[in-house]
Amino acid sequence: MWGGAYQTEVFRAAFEAVPKGEVTAARALGLPAFQTFLDITLPIALRIAITGTTTTAITQFRSSSFMIVVGYQELTYVANRIVSDTFKVFETFGIACLMYLLGCSILSALSRTFERRLAVPGLGVVK
After folding, report:
1. For the segment 3-16, what is each residue's pLDDT rounded down to a tens digit?
2. What domains lie within the chain, and their CATH numbers?
3. Rg of the chain's alpha carbons, rounded to an integer?
4. If both were cysteines, with which of 43, 54, 61, 82 could 111 make a disulfide (CB 3.0 to 4.6 Å apart)?
């Protein structure tokens, strides 16, 4: 639930960040409001929202308690169970840490790739 609220806020901010001149120009050319939204506002807002959406997704992944909802056991919970059986604290949580790092790195790399592919010259800086 909290992830949905954050995602909603990310997209609201992205729609507000669309330059008003773009919308005004489309309306001046005679595009109806819905067509302006589909052709101008939506593509620009989606490009702007990529970074915030990725950040929220990584935060949800790191929190990982939402995974219980979809049927998977939480990684930290599993690590605690292994520690209680084997008493190998550093090894177990070291591996759990590496798994979180790998998952977050993959999400970040995919986001950067997606952001570069959708980049429009003059609309923000993508490195």
Report:
1. 788 899 999 999 99
2. 2-117 (1.10.3720.10)
3. 20
4. 54
